[in-house]
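Batch manifest, entry 17 of 40.
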Amino acid sequence: MIGTDQRVSMTMATKAELEAELAALRKELSQLKGLTEEAAEDAGDEAHSTIRDFVGSLRETDLEGLAKQLTDEIESAMHEKPLLTALGILVVGYALGRLR
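Output type: structure tokens
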């Protein structure tokens, strides 16, 4: 007949096995952490590059042209659809007020 202590020791891992497994898991975790940090750094670099390229592609004249086009459209909307323009201004004012 096998004693209780002998049955437990047969099913449980030894301390050395557990320590070896823990060391292996720690090593794997540190490798994954390194990979994650590298991936995040690469993604940040790529985003920075994309934004830099986009901003570089915008020229001052492009922004001036867009601003002029926007003001022209707002002015024409004010004359063509005054009620709709007033409603739009009210909605924008409400939205800006809610941001506080």
